[in-house]
Amino acid sequence: MLKVLFGWFYKGNFAVFLALNSNGGGIKISKVEFTVSNIKKCLCPECPVQAVSICVEGKKRIMAQIAWSSESGMYFEADRVPGMYCSTGKAICKDIDPQKKCRCRECEVWKEYNLGEDFPELYYCQYGQKE
Q1: How many domains does the chain have?
Q2: Helix, strand, coil % (nearest 5) of the chain?
Q3: Quick check: is 12 in a domain?
């Protein structure tokens, strides 16, 4: 089970957002914060790439319980959230269809973090997180 611990770390006027994952990936510096606010804005759950995924459908129900019932959470189990791939990495669900049209460019998270600047620009569910 992939778990992501994250937070902002400050030293003087310098701040960095770190994500530590439990799948042996170590510490990764992510450009996108994995927060309740961003989960609510994320378009991944409604993206055509995930539209026919049975795996994603089950995770949507869990995501609704986690994200919409809690505003505090500094800790989420990323493997239960069928989205935020620009922050957490590739999709765990293997029944997604990356041949379908990606909606990343329409996403408020994508716009807020200026994710069109370098690779990957889209399809984080397939290529992994933005670092």
Answers
A1: 1
A2: 40, 15, 45
A3: no
At 59, list the tokens.
């995770």
- Range of the structural domain that residue 103 is part of: 32-72+80-127
Q: Is residue 123 part of a domain?
A: yes
In the prediction, which pLDDT does 67 show?
55
Whether the pTM exceeds 0.70: the reply is: no
Assess contact for 70 and 126: CB atoms under 8 A.
no
Residue 5 has pLDDT above 80, yes or no: no
**Confidence class for position 70, pLDDT limits 50, 70, 90:** low
pLDDT for 120 beyond 90: no
Block residue for tokens 């996403």: 107
Element (H, E) at 57: helix 54-69
**Residue 107: how many CB atoms within 10 A of its CB?**
22
By DSSP bridging, strand 26-29 and strand 75-76 are unpaired
DSSP annotation of 94 reads S
